[in-house]
Amino acid sequence: MREKKVSLKDIAKEVGVSTALVSYVLNGLAKEKRVSKELVDKINKAAVELNYQPNQIARSLRKGSTNTLGLIVADISNPFFAQLARVIEDEAAKNSYTVVFGSSDENCKKSESLIDTLLNRQVDGFIVAPTEGCTEHIISLAKREVPIVLCDRYLPELSTSHVVLNNYQATYSAVEHFLLKGFTKIKMVAYKSAMIHMQERIRGYKEAMVKHGLAKHSVVKEVRYNHIKNDMEKIFNEIENENDTDAVLFATNALSLEGLYAIRKKNLRVPEDIAVIGFDGHEAFDFFNPALTYIQQPMDEMGKESVRILIEQIKGSKKIVQVVLKSQLIERGSCG
Known about the structure:
The chain is an alpha/beta fold. It folds into three domains: 47 residues, Orthogonal Bundle (434 Repressor (Amino-terminal Domain)); 126 residues, Rossmann fold; 132 residues, Response regulator (Rossmann fold). The strands form two sheets. The chain has a six-stranded parallel β-sheet, sandwiched between helices. About 2% of the residues have low confidence.
């Protein structure tokens, strides 16, 4: 049999006071209503002993706030987004907020549906890694003055707060690291995407190659988001047949992982046959020998800054804050 939910009336009966008085105390109005400390302690003690659970929806309607944040990422199963979500969740909790998660799977319709669902649940604000094609939906949120911070990616046509990596600098520096190690026939493997973060990573690679007189070796191989395995196999078949590549730069951690499997399948030695730099760390990389040199994003800072800026907006700030973070190259064995 289902246990009866404890009400304010039950607590009032236990203490011997009015239901209104119990409501004042449990809603933080004891001082305003001049309730004695002795009575406040009795009511709180009774609430604990009776295991009273407040109706959060009703409380939220009274406060005009739900103390919840909506977080929409590309793919919560991706270790990068999973770790970022953890940082955001922990930082939100420090500020008494709960986070509700959703994955867009790089699908605009799904992203829009998630945003609408969370709006209906009255989240106080959003942290969003935007998906290609969803600019108008994000703009509509901004026009309605819904607090929102874009994270990991931004929309150049929209003036809103964001926290992102300096993607151009990240890949530019990676190319220069390859060159420092003596590799010059460097290809890049990236997603087929018009999103600014991916385009900036490609631009950094290309401009570094041009600057160092290697334009003729500048080749970007594109992978479709929903066809990673097949496209990656095709790319490494081409690399093996053309025999004109001594290094590969992967634009994301998912591409890095799939690329390393393709390299192993081809029995290519790293770095003797082909040197590799990836993006972000991944536990699976520890199973590859030698360990992967990779571009590390400052995930803690990215998550904490996103939460900080969003909460400032929720509290009324109209200031647009745009943070661009620096990456760090973690050197291990895959570049020699």
